[in-house]
């Protein structure tokens, strides 16, 4: 089981498209759209949001994200109406970035508070730090991206989900920029493309294992 996600939007098409995108990065997570009114017009439908929230909960709770102010009110009212309101959290974060971050966090097995936090902080710019020399206790490997889309969207999500399984701090460097290996958005911000060479650096008890798995993913084109 994993935390479910509900996307509350004034637009049915927006919610459906975003749910489809997020599902590509979190295939084992229930991600449900709840957008538009029952007649197909723009707006938010309280009953639909309640129903989606109930369906999305497989036992680990639900995180709801919203697009505009009145959608937040609808989401909060829906949560209050649940038999156990504490089972769901309305995350105050950007809808698109937040949905991606929340989906990856849920896929990684994090609890609903951690998933909500991932969504809430997704809109905070992450500075790409200039790379520095690796600390003495850090290991590093250089890898060439050969998959079609490089380190974007789904491949970045696959890498983050995999690295979260290891007790290690991991960063990924492209040129003179370095990003947190546990952040999908930070990795995507590197703009690493097919043919680019990245350096994956890890430190911690399972650093070597994390690097071996990263190499396996890159060499296998992230399963594409």
From TrEMBL:
Record-linked InterPro entries: DhaM (IPR039643), DhaM_N (IPR012844), HPr-like (IPR000032), HPr-like_sf (IPR035895), PTS_EIIA_man-typ (IPR004701), PTS_EIIA_man-typ_sf (IPR036662), PTS_HPr_His_P_site (IPR001020)
GO molecular function: phosphoenolpyruvate-glycerone phosphotransferase activity
Entry EC number(s): 2.7.1.121
Record keywords, A-Z: Kinase, Transferase
Gene3D superfamilies xrefs: HPr-like, Phosphotransferase system, mannose-type IIA component
Highest taxon above the source species: Bacteria
Catalytic reactions on record: dihydroxyacetone + phosphoenolpyruvate = dihydroxyacetone phosphate + pyruvate
Function according to Swiss-Prot or TrEMBL: General (non sugar-specific) component of the phosphoenolpyruvate-dependent sugar phosphotransferase system (sugar PTS). This major carbohydrate active-transport system catalyzes the phosphorylation of incoming sugar substrates concomitantly with their translocation across the cell membrane. The phosphoryl group from phosphoenolpyruvate (PEP) is transferred to the phosphoryl carrier protein HPr by enzyme I. Phospho-HPr then transfers it to the PTS EIIA domain. Component of the dihydroxyacetone kinase complex, which is responsible for the phosphoenolpyruvate (PEP)-dependent phosphorylation of dihydroxyacetone. DhaM serves as the phosphoryl donor. Is phosphorylated by phosphoenolpyruvate in an EI- and HPr-dependent reaction, and a phosphorelay system on histidine residues finally leads to phosphoryl transfer to DhaL and dihydroxyacetone.
Protein name: Phosphocarrier protein HPr
